[in-house]
Write a structure and sequence with these properties.
Structural class: mainly alpha
Order of helices and strands: HHHHHHHHHHHH
Radius of gyration: 18 Å
Number of strands: 0
Low-confidence stretches: none
Distance between the termini: 22 Å
Shape: globular
Number of helices: 12
Number of domains: 1
Helix content: over 70%
């Protein structure tokens, strides 16, 4: 699990300076604009990210319970690992070769039908309400990176480990998203792309590793 944790932290931290800006940036920016005059903005940011991470943990526990359904039999467990690994490889390539595949897995129709409504509703809130509301729904954004961590959580038999994986994801993305306005200006597109590609290739290699574990134990 120690090596896994290092991989998860690296992927989440590196991709947070690129991919997370594009996916979660709208939520963070709206939240900051709604509360730009708040004297307790720092506290509000902590609340926002607390509920964002809490949503990830909830998703980790939920999909871990679903995954455990497939891990009862050893043969099924190995097949499940193999399939999850292939899914990770697919996600990694989809993130690298951004196009129709990524369009499908990140579901832009969802943005049009659901996210816009959330944004419209959020504009009626300020302070703690906006932090809780936007932070909570931020965690449900359809995102290839989140899918990778959910798939990782599903591959764990221990629910606490699944929750820990999603907690690590949320915590590792915290520095970049917490300093969104500052880091967005500081980092060039080149550096963001470099961070992204390192993270995406790590996803592919981790998927290969998980598929190999499942395949060799058939």
């Amino acid at each position: 699990m120690n090596l896994d944790l290092l991989v998860f932290i690296s992927i989440a931290f590196l991709s947070s300076f690129g991919h997370c800006y594009s996916m979660c940036g709208g939520f963070v920016l709206l939240f900051l604009n709604l509360n730009k005059e708040a004297k307790n903005l720092f506290i509000l940011q902590i609340i926002f990210h607390f509920f964002r991470i809490l949503t990830y943990i909830f998703l980790g526990v939920l999909f871990s319970l679903i995954g455990n359904f497939f891990l009862i039999d050893t043969t099924i467990q190995n097949l499940f690992f193999f399939i999850i690994g292939l899914l990770m490889i697919f996600l990694g390539f989809a993130l690298i070769f951004r196009g129709k595949i990524l369009f499908l897995i990140e579901n832009h129709i969802f943005y049009e039908k659901f996210i816009i409504k959330i944004f419209q509703k959020a504009k009626t809130y300020k302070g703690v309400k906006s932090a809780i509301f936007l932070g909570f729904f931020n965690g449900f954004i359809p995102c290839g990176l989140v899918y990778f961590f959910i798939a990782s959580a599903m591959s764990r038999q221990n629910i606490l480990e699944s929750a820990l994986i999603m907690f690590i994801f949320g915590l590792s993305t915290l520095p970049a998203l917490f300093l969104f306005s500052l880091m967005a200006k500081f980092l060039s597109d080149l550096f963001r792309n470099i961070f992204n590609y390192i993270a995406y290739f790590a996803i592919i290699f981790y998927g290969l590793y998980l598929s190999f574990i499942g395949f060799k134990n058939f």
